[in-house]
Amino acid sequence: MANLNSKNDSMQVSRTLYRDASIGKLLLDLGKITPEDAERILRLQKTEGLHFGVAAQRLGMVTEADIHQALSLQFDYPYLQANQGAFSKDLVAAYQPFSRQVEALRALRSQLILRWFNEGNKSLAIVSASEGDGCSTLAANLAVVFSQLGEQTLLVDANLRNPTQHKIFNLSERRGLSDILVGRADSAVMTKIDSFVDLTVLGAGTVPPNPQELLSRSIFTDFINQATTHYDIVIVDTAPANNTSDAQAVAGRCGGALLVSKLNETRIAELENIRDQLMVSGVTIVGAVVNDF
Fold first, then answer.
1. Contact in structure between 208 and 184 (CB atoms under 8 Å)
2. pLDDT tens digit sequence for 3-34
3. Which of 126, 112, 191, 183 is nearest to 158 (CA)?
4. Structure pTM?
5. Strands (E), the chain
6. Residue ranges of domains in the chain, CATH in brackets
7. How far apart are CA 221 and CA 251, in angstroms?
8. What are 285's strand-pairing partners?
9. Which ranges of the chain have pLDDT less than 70?
């Protein structure tokens, strides 16, 4: 995982620049106003003693949402407006940061910090019973809310059968975890998500013919160990646990698992079976989530 320290240094510089920037400069950088607009706003601001943002809104040059976005950069809480970015709209933590769903995600984040990450653990597998339970969507949104907290966060797509994270984050890099595990790639294939200062995503990569064997190799253990030395939080998405033992192999390397069920769809017996299998393998069940994404 070469050059991660230099990347982190540059990210810290960017965050300091955002915090120190004025609302006016941030609105300019975001493309919300032009230099000519700024001149008009400054004149009104000086004449009537207004804050820059208030003056800009009074002139009809920006919306309240634009001001909130600029403030989010100043306070290290990046999120996106509906027409920004090319990410999946399922990434509600990015596009709907003040919604009921995201409030629930933040509450879950707090519980995970208290129950798992504050105990010295850094990696967590997200495990569901079946396809369609929302495991990948929850993993993606959890990674975003942890990054919004200022935690250096790595999201790993370890679903080597039907991966999703490259679609959610619109990754152009098609190599990923599987390619690293067979020695065909290195940490350069990790994608820093610039819209979120502290978020990096590693896609699943080339879909292999032997996913369970790859995830059971010591090199995957080594990968997780290295990741946890460079990141504060490592969230690992997994394949559905009903039909394969992939998730069990991943959770065993992470040490802990968050179980995900789909509201009104997942059967309790399925979750209990997965829970028992993971616990036999020595995995800590950190919690269970009923997902309504």
1. no
2. 444 444 444 434 443 444 578 888 888 788 89
3. 126
4. 0.78
5. 123-128, 153-157, 191-192, 199-202, 233-237, 256-262, 284-291
6. 4-74 (no CATH), 92-291 (3.40.50.300)
7. 11
8. 257
9. 1-21, 71-78, 293
